[in-house]
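Bit of a strange request maybe. I'm writing a small parser for C-alpha cell strings and I need a real example to test against, not something I typed by hand. Could someone generate the C-alpha cells for this chain?
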Amino acid sequence: MMILFWLGLFIIVFTYVGYGLLAWGVVKIRGAYEIPTDQRTDDQLPAVTLLIAAYNEADILPIKVANCRALDYPKDKLHLLFVTDGSSDESAALLAQEAGLTALHQPERRGKIAAVKRAMPFVETLITVLTDANTFLNPEAIRRMVADFQDPTVGAVAGQKRVISQGDASSGGEGLYWRYESFLKKKDSQWYSVVGAAGELYAIRTELFHQVPPDTILDDFMQTLLIAKDGYRVTYAPEAIAEEHASANVGEELKRKIRICAGGWQSMGRLIPLLNPLRYGVLSIQYIGHRVLRWSLAPLFLPFVLLANIWLVAQGSHWVYAFLLVGQLAFYGLAILGYLWRERKLNIPGFFAPYYFVIMNYSVYAGFLRYWRGKQAATWEKSARREQAASV
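Reply from user aminoacidic:
Good idea to test on real output. This should exercise your parser:
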C-alpha cells in the first residue's frame, strides 16, 4: 500500500505540477527557442487562407464574418473560406450573401474533419489558418502566427484559447484550466514543440496537411501532432487569441470534456510510436508528460491514492500520512462545495478549481468507456455556450 500510495502520488503530482516545473526548468537553464521578429512589409507577407468549418451557426456567422474582415492582415492576401456541410439552418444562405469570401455547402453531415478535408483542395495558399465559427480573433492573430513560419523548421503554430469567465463553476474552472494550458504550451514551444493545438485557432503549412481517418475525434490534436511527428516544430503564439464564452453550464462542459477524452484515448492508440523517446527524443517526453499521463495514469491513480492513504492512516502509519489525508479530504470537500454551488457566481479566485479538477478526471473514465464501446461519433455537436460576443 505504501508503494502504491507514493508511486501514485508521484505520478499525479508530476502530471499536474511537476511537468510544468520540468519544462520551465529546462527552458530556464538551456534557453528558449526564439522566433525572429517579423520585419517584412505587407507586400512581403505570404497569402493565407482562413478556414472556418461551421455547423448550424447562423446566429453567430454575421459577427464571425465581421470579425474576420477586421483582422489586421493585407486584405488581398487573406482568403476567407467557410464550409457549412450538414447545416440545416440559414448558415449557407447567409454566407452566400457575403462578398469576398468562398462558401462551401452540402446537405450531408459527415463531421468537421470531413468538412475540412473537402475544403482543403480549394486552398491555394502556402499557409492555412483554421478556426471555429464561435470563436473571435484579435486583430493581430494572423500576422502573429504567420511570423513563426519564417523558421523553416516550424510546421504549425497554435494560437491561444481564451475563455470568458462569468465566475461560476463552468466558466471559472474552464478559464483557469486554459490559463494553465497556455503556460504549458508556451514552455513546450520554448523547450521544443507544442504537443497538439486546440481547434479554436491554429495554422499549418498547407503542404503538411494530413488526411487523418474520417472517424478521427480530435482532428486538430492529431493534425498538429502528426506534423510534429514528421520532424517539424509546432510553436505557440500566445498573442494570437481565439476568445469564446464558457460552456452554458457544467453539464455542457462535461459533455465536451467526455468527447475530448474519448478522442484522447483514440489518439493515444493511433500515436503509439510517439511513446518511444529513443526515436522521437524530446517530443516523446513532452507528449507523455503533457498528454498521455493526463489521459491515463494520473486519473487512474487518484482513487487508489485516496484509498491507500486511508488504509495507511488506519494502520497507524507515520503522521505525514494523516496530514496528507486531511489535505485530500479538504480538496474533495471543496469539490463537493463546488458541485453544490456550481451555478452561483462567486468572486473567489480558484474556488471552483477542485470541482473542475474532479470533473475533468471523471471525464477520462467516461471518455474511455465511450471510446471502448464505440459510441463517440466524429460528427461535431454544438455545445451550448453563454452569450456569444467578441471582446478581443
